[in-house]
Design a protein that fits this description.
Radius of gyration: 20 Å
Order of helices and strands: HHHHHEHHEH
Number of helices: 8
Strand content: under 5%
Shape: globular
Largest sheet: 2 strands, parallel
Length: 164
């Protein structure tokens, strides 16, 4: 059984391993407390935090309800500006499109930005299988990549690691 991300174990297996890892639990506890404290200070600065949060939720929900129209408008704008939009039905097709685009340049190395979507579809692995090396621009993502590891958090990809 495989996990949600390409090459990842299923959640129950990953959870059993993580719970037994004392260093990981310490790192996560420290990072979580730090993040929560910073968030609490930021929230305290705004008297209307709850209203702002609710307004943001409504905007997000409305955008998701009309995502199809937004994506088509985006394609029109990109095309009008001289760009090309590629549509993919699944991870395999998306990976093939990207690999083909890189191969067309003759390059064997690419630099990519932090993206949960590319992590979810296994883009780095797909490019590697095509002889293309992808380097991350986000420092935490690069740390994880160089350690032959996986990101563990959407905003703080190396939260499971410490300076040591």
């Amino acid at each position: 059984m495989s996990g949600v991300f390409v090459g990842m174990p299923a959640f129950p297996e990953a959870a059993r391993s993580a719970v037994r890892d004392g260093r990981l639990r310490h790192n996560l506890r420290h990072a979580t407390h730090t993040i929560r404290d910073k968030r609490a200070r930021a929230v305290a600065e705004l008297a209307d935090w709850a209203e702002l949060r609710e307004a943001g939720k409504r905007i997000k929900d409305r955008a998701l309800r009309h995502l199809d129209a937004h994506l088509l408008r985006l394609e029109e704008a990109v095309t009008a500006a001289g760009g090309t939009v590629h549509w993919a039905a699944d991870a395999a097709e998306a990976n093939r499109i990207v690999a083909d685009l890189v191969r067309a340049t003759g390059e064997t190395e690419v630099v990519k930005v932090k993206s949960m979507a590319t992590q979810e579809i296994g883009l780095n692995e797909a490019l590697e299988a095509e002889g293309i090396r992808a380097y991350e621009t986000d420092l935490a993502e690069l740390i994880v990549q160089l350690g032959e590891d996986r990101p563990s958090h959407i905003l703080v990809p190396a939260i499971h690691r410490n300076r040591g």
